[in-house]
Amino acid sequence: MSVDLPTNHTITSPATGIRTEEMLLNVGPQHPSTHGVFRLVVMIDGETITEAVPVMGYLHRGTEKLAEDLTYTQIIPYTDRLDYISAMTNNYVLCHAVETMMGLEIPERADFLRLIAMELNRIASHLVWWGTYLLDIGAMSPFLYAFRDREMILDLFNELCGARMTFNYMRVGGVKWDAPPGWIDKAKDFVQYMKKEFANYHTLVSGNEIFIHRLKGIGKFDAKTAIDYSLSGVMLRSTGVKWDLRKDEPYSLYSRFEFDVPTSTDGDCLARYHLRMAEIEQSLRILEQALDQFPKEGETMGKVPRVIRPPAGETFVRIESPRGEIGVYIASQGKDKPWRLKLRRPSFNNLQILPSLLQGANLSNMVAILGSIDIVLGEVDA
């Protein structure tokens, strides 16, 4: 891979007149705080970052090109490997794009199962972020609590689709199979458990003075910058822009449920922390309503032809993943395989602001700023 890396310079401080030489520092591609095979090359003058260059592509698998030789159903497992922390939303956005092209109607029971799976996965994703982010900045115990509670969601998914991480659960027209007997009641029990347990998360971390001072004012940017960089999700909402596709361009059954879109105008790492915590609460709120309204009977697959052939043409759909707007563009020639497939990956887009945020920052804040973006490298590299 070709990338323009920083080169060393000698700097004379205008304040002291002392001449210093910059140092080149490699972070990754196998550093635990990069959360995947990601390399960050930073130039530092003392403890100040003067330049930062992200080096991506170590996990590139050519998903978009591979899709051209796969049927639409065969592509679904590949979406699991993109944002592998929130694979249900990846499954959905591909199926949603094909269904939009074909004008398919989804049975209500299948739509409920999809939405419930996506919101459970949103909570699981934010729990991974919460635990690993705090581990990165020096707190061990939150990681253990987060993964303990995430395990309960993974157990539910294992019962629902037979997998704990790469689910391959959704299908064009519905879902692979129905929820097993008693599964909805178990999901209800988890929601009630998590609502009570979540207060302990805030008691343990959110009010801690050391934690607050560690993140307040760090990695700050405004709404104009967020829009200029095409940021989405929490990265956008932390600057005061109230935009969530579940509300603003509703899909699935989201228009039926009451929930809020949390925002902040602070635009710093602390704001992004609080927004992700608030999103967990809103997901629990959505789940409570969806599980109570879950249809007692119904089909889990719509009327779908044996061979899926969307009509010739093109479409682009987008949904709200835990990391922001994920989109799928499909160009079809009326065959059983796409002529072209293109993914809009929020982790990739959100990562573009990192060099700007790190320039002039203290080296000790580097990991805190990177972690606040919440990237998944499978989605960055596709």
Give a quick rundown of the structure.
The chain is α+β, with helices and mostly antiparallel strands and 382 residues long. It contains 15 helices and ten strands.
Task: Characterise the protein shown here.
The chain is α+β, with helices and mostly antiparallel strands and 382 residues long. The chain folds into two domains: 10-55, no CATH class; 63-381, Cytochrome-c3 Hydrogenase, chain B, CATH 1.10.645. Helices cover 45% and strands 14% of the residues. It contains 15 helices and ten strands. The strands form four sheets. Strands 3-4-5 form a three-stranded antiparallel β-sheet. A three-stranded antiparallel β-sheet has the order 8-9-10. A hairpin with a 7-residue loop joins strand 9 and strand 10 (340-344). Helix 3 (87-102) packs antiparallel against helix 4 (108-136), helix 4 (108-136) runs antiparallel to helix 11 (269-292) and helix 5 packs antiparallel against helix 6 (183-206). The model has no long low-confidence stretch (mean pLDDT 93).
